[in-house]
Amino acid sequence: MSPPLREAGTRPLAPAAGLPPLPAGRGGMDLAEALASALSALAANTLRAVLTALGIFIGVAAVIATVAVGAGARQQVMQQIESLGANLLVIWPGTVRQGAVRLGAGARPSLTWDDAQGVVEEVPSIVAASANIRQGLQVIAGNQNWATTIQGADPDVFVVHDWVIEEGRPFTAEEARAGRKVAVLGATVAEMLFPYENPVGARIRIAATPFEVIGVLGRKGQNAQGMDQDDVVMIPFWTARRSVMGAGRVWSRSVNFVSLKVAEGEDMRAAEEEVRALIRQRHRLAPNEPDDFNLRNMSDVAATRDASSRTLSMLLASVAAVSLLVGGIGVMNIMLVSVTERTREIGLRLAVGARRRDILAQFLIEAVVLALLGGAAGVVAGIGLSHLLGAAAGWPVLIQWDAVALAVAVSALTGLFFGFWPARRAARLDPIAALRHD
Predict the structure, then answer these.
(1) What confidence tens digit (pLDDT) does each residue in 199-226 have?
(2) 161 half-sphere exposure, CB direction, 13 A CA radius
(3) Mean pLDDT over all residues of the chain?
(4) Rounded to an integer, what distance in angstroms lies between the CA atom of residue 189 and that of residue 205?
(5) Which contacts qualify for 104-110: CB closer than 8 Å, 24 or more apart?
(6) In angstroms, what CA-CA distances link 205 with 20, 133, 181, 359?
(7) Beta bridge partners of 292
(8) pLDDT digits (tens, 9 = 90+) for 60-72
(9) Of the listed ranges 77-91, 142-156, 181-195, the one predicted with least confidence
(10) What is the distance between the alpha carbons of residues 345 and 52, in angstroms, rounded to a whole number?
């Protein structure tokens, strides 16, 4: 075996730690050898490699957690909005004026049951409408009682709000016109009053008035404001007005709100404008007078909430991107140090026939491997962190696997981009000068 290469007056050159000697008679390296060399070099300086990859690790973990929790939050908001009913418009009383005095909302009955009927009859895009009144009252069933919301509504309320009847049936238009004392319980009320039996057919009392339970609503959960939509008892509108929520003649046809369902495929904004124009006409408002009612398009609410959630997610992702940038600079710094430490070895490789592109590829692969290791660890940490954040905030977590793949790809590109200059610097070293380097 021939002795190691020696410079005049110097000690023998030993292969640097982390890089295997070149195979005899060949100066180049294939991909497998370059990868093994990169892993060997990183293993020789484990702590330094871990600290260098920490920036990539934090950036990738932050990106995955941000995207997963943000997507879960958006999904929850959309589910809450959709639980109110698809293609939904809601109208409620607004402020009215008495001379120069502007009265508060609800000070006068500015919205009536007749408005709801007029809208469904005269606006073609509206397929169902329900006038609604609500009041908190105590409900009694046997020796059980529960304080809940009593909602007097038209039969179309189940269509407008997409309520599913889990047990029994809804009340009919005939029962509503006749003022029958029938009730449909929300899931929460049914559980509180009838924990061990099917409530359909049972008797309850609302404000000392007996009602027959004819159905139980399917569960909807909380709405966007955090209120339990299942804590409700539905009864016919005119039964509620005459037997439970009695009022004087002036208030007898007033409502708390009107909910409208727009036909599938119709333009929600156009339907909103048609409804607004009709209500203004019915209320005899002059062109220069403001609306005495409020009209909300729930699809706009959903879009606004979704846009807010996306903006917050983009802001957090930008912070994570800065972390990736810092991590990339760390990779560049450590690769420059590595090139300096291994200058003599690089010179030896070049002297025995290694091509400059082999040196370039070797250091690029090392930078990419370092970044990928940090990215892979960041993926695991990001998924775990997203589940922890989701559990703490009570949000669902939706792992976006395309975002995971993108984060790993970005980490590899970060290593490639920030490792290129150190690799190029190593490849451009003069072999003679490198061999003389101490």
Answers:
(1) 999 999 998 899 999 999 998 877 656 6
(2) 25
(3) 79
(4) 13
(5) 105/294, 109/250, 109/251, 109/253, 109/254, 110/283, 110/292, 110/293
(6) 87, 18, 10, 87
(7) none
(8) 888 788 778 777 7
(9) 77-91
(10) 23
In angstroms, the Cα distances linking 129 to 30, 259, 283 are 73, 6, 18
Q: Which amino acid is at 263?
A: A
124: its two tokens: 């073609």
213 class by beta-carbon count within 10 Å (0-12 exposed, 13-18 middle, 19+ buried): buried
Which residues touch 331 (CB under 8 Å, ≥6 apart)?
52, 53, 55, 56, 367, 370, 371, 414, 415, 418, 419
150 membership: H or E segment, kind and range:
strand 144-153
Question: By three-state DSSP, how is residue 149 classified?
Answer: strand
d(CA 332, CA 96): 68
The two beta strands, 232-236 and 144-153, are parallel
Q: Positive or negative, the Cα torsion across 297, 300, 304, 310?
A: positive
The C-alpha atoms of residue 9 and residue 175 are separated, in whole angstroms, by: 111
Residue with tokens 């004087």: 248
Judge contact between 93 and 110, C-beta under 8 A: yes
What residues contact residue 284 under an 8 Å CB cut-off, 6+ apart?
none
Residue 47: both structure tokens together: 């702590």
Quickly tell me which residue has 């909302």 as its tokens. Answer: 105
CB 215 within 8 A of CB 167: yes
- Whole-angstrom CA distances from 341 to 108, 362, 424, 433, 436 are 84, 15, 15, 14, 13
